[in-house]
Specification:
The chain is built from nine helices and 13 strands. The strands form two sheets. It has a seven-stranded mixed beta sheet with strand order 3-4-2-1-5-6-7, with helices on both faces. A six-stranded mixed beta sheet has the order 9-8-10-13-12-11.
Length: 344
Amino acid sequence: MRKKSKYNVAVIGVGAVGIEMLRVLKQRNFPIGELRVLARSSRKIEVDGEEYSVQSIAPESFDGIDIALFAGTEGEKGAAVIYAQEAVKRGAVVIDNGADFRMDPAVPLVVPEVNGKDVLTHKGIIANPNCSTIQMVVALGPIHQAVGISRIIVTTLQASSGAGKQAVQQLKEENSLIAANGYFNLHVSAEKKAMPQQLAYNVFPHIGSFVEGDYTNEEWKLVRETHKIMHDDTIKISATTVRVPVRTGHSESVYIETRSPLTPENARDILSKSPGIEVMDDLKKNLYPMPKDCEGKDETFVGRIRQDMFVNNGLWLWIVADNLRKGAATNAVQIAEVVVGNYK
C-alpha cells in the first residue's frame, strides 16, 4: 500500500469486537482520514461517550476505503464471506477477525509480534487468528525461536465474552437468578441462552462443535493456526478448551517440551525482553496473571513459569490476555499498522 499520512478505514460489525476495534483505533492513534462504521442496519451507537453513525453495509460502502476491519463472527459465516472480495476489488486491504480465511493457503494469518513479515505476502486479505491462539503464540513464539518447541499441551479457560454479548448477558442473568434463590439452587436457566450449558457457578469443556477425533473445532484451531503462524507443522499440539464464568480475559495452562534445554530463569529472561509480553511471576508476592487484572490491556501476561519435575526440557506456563483486545481487536489494528508501516 502506498504510504499516506491518513487512511480511510471501515469497521464492519458493531458487536463486542467491533466496538473494541473503534476503541483501539482511537487509543492507538491510528492515522485515520475517514472512518466508516458498517453493519447490517443503520443506527447510532455510542462508545466511550463518542457517537458513531452506523451505515447499512453494501458493496459500494468500500469505495475509497484503504483498510477494512471485519469484526468477524466465530462459528458461522461472517460478513467477510460476502463483502471481503468486494472491498479488495475497490482497493481496500481486508483484515478479517472471523474464521473464514484463516486456513486459506493464500491468506496470511498474522500475529505481528511473531510473524509480522507474513503481512507482505497478502493478496488483499489478511486473517486475524483465534483469540486463544493469539495469546499462546505471543508467549511461545520467542521460546520457539530461541530453543525450539517440539510439543504443546494446552488447556484454555475462556471467558464468556469470547462467545459474544449474549453470552455475557447469560452469565449475568444466571448469576442474578442464583443470588435471588439464596444460593440454595445452583441449577438455573437463563431466558436467552447463548451457550450449550449453564455458565454461572460452572465450567464446561465445550467450545465450538465436536469434530475430528472428538476434539472441538476450537481445539483444532489452536493446533492448525499455531502450525501456520509459526511455520512449523512438526510441533505436536493437543488442546482442551473450557468455558469459565469470567466476563473477559482468557487464561491458558500451557505445557511445552523444548528441543534444547531451557531453564525457567532463561525463559523469564527471553519473555521479558520480547514485544507484547509482561512477565508476572513472583510467587513470594502471590503475583501471577489473572483475568480481572488483564481486562482492558493489550499485553499478553505470563507467569507460573516452572520446570516439569519428571520430563527433561518440560516447562509449564500460565498465559492470560484480554480476548477482546489482544485476542481480537488490538491484534487486527496492529496488523493494519504493519500494513501502513506504523507498527511499533
